[in-house]
Design goal:
two-stranded parallel sheet; five-stranded mixed beta sheet; binds NADP nicotinamide-adenine-dinucleotide phosphate; elongated; Rossmann fold; 2 domains; ProC C-terminal domain-like fold; alpha/beta; 7 strands
């Protein structure tokens, strides 16, 4: 794994809890400090600041190469690694905005590339990852990517031209949920609850409602109707929320995120 910070770390934790041995995995980091943290977990780690050839050394003999550096460094680390890649290596990048074509251009033609867009709940095995094949990736390669991200949550294979749209929903989505939680906590504090109690009430309500939605297989509108008695308190609250036109707000927000994703991809 080239670059192994928060997202890379979540994937490795998923692999380790699935029975992978730490010494089956080699990671690179920029700093020696980050590499030392991996070494403490018995994962083989090389820091670019102390070993300029770290990224090239790490991919030597690897069938699967995960790229989890920040988008700005993806092409650079792949160029560093290119000569040492196995001819049939599979590269899976989680970097936002960097296309498979941009990556394919800097690695040997026999190497295939896949793009994945996970999200932070992957850290606790509840991630949602979009997966898109590059022009040279086979069905078997896609299968490897699905199995890998399946260890840290659910997966969805989709065409690459939809992956930026997916990133505005499930990639950025945890931030929208945290934002809604913050707002509801603030409103709860105004009703006299301290922050800790308000956070407990709100977080458990979000968790319970989300799990109920998924477990029941029913539509959100149906479950909402179940808690909304005619002329009751919830109905009065929902009537106020409807005035805020949240669907329109989310549409604007998703379009803004999509525009930004395209700006980032264009460099
Ligand atoms: N976080 C998310 O929710 C999320 C979701 C989907 C996709 N992603 C994608 O995941 C990628 C990583 O994001 P992140 O949040 O995990 O970032 P991060 O925590 O900053 O991790 C970046 C990692 O790259 C290492 N690094 C930097 N330069 C390097 C180099 N030249 N060679 C080798 N390693 C190098 C860093 O090492 P040091 O620790 O020493 O600095 C660190 O381990 C991004 O491309 C992002 O688009 C993130």
């Amino acid at each position: 794994m080239l670059g192994s910070g928060s997202m890379g770390g979540a994937i490795i934790d998923g692999l380790l809890s699935d029975g992978f041995q730490p010494d089956q995995i080699t990671v690179t980091t920029q700093s020696e400090g980050s590499a030392a943290k991996w070494r403490a977990k018995k994962v083989i780690s090389l820091a670019a600041e102390t070993e300029p050839t770290a990224n090239a050394s790490a991919v030597t003999g690897a069938n699967l190469v995960l790229v989890a550096v920040k988008p700005a460094y993806v092409v650079q680390v792949l160029k560093e690694a290119a000569e040492n890649l196995l001819p049939d290596a599979l590269i899976i990048s989680v970097a936002a905005g960097i296309t498979t074509a941009a990556m394919e251009a800097v690695v040997p033609e026999s190497v295939s590339v896949i793009r994945a867009m996970p999200n932070t709940p992957s850290v606790i095995g509840l991630g949602m990852t979009g997966i898109a094949a590059g022009s040279r990736a086979s069905a078997a390669a896609l299968d490897v990517a699905e199995q890998l991200f399946g260890k840290v949550g659910k997966t969805l294979v989709l065409p690459e031209n939809q992956i930026d749209a997916l990133s505005t929903i499930s990639g950025s989505g945890p931030a929208y949920v945290f934002y809604l939680v913050e707002q509801l906590v603030e409103a709860s504090e105004n009703l006299g609850f301290d922050k800790q109690t308000a956070t407990l009430l709100v977080a458990e309500t979000f968790r319970g409602a989300s799990e109920y939605l998924v477990a029941s297989g029913r539509e959100a509108a149906e479950l909402r109707a179940q808690v909304t008695s005619p002329n009751g308190t919830t109905m009065r609250a929902i009537a106020e929320l409807e005035k805020l036109e949240l669907a329109k707000g989310f549409e604007i927000a998703l379009n803004a995120a999509l525009t930004r994703a395209r700006e980032l991809a264009a460099g």
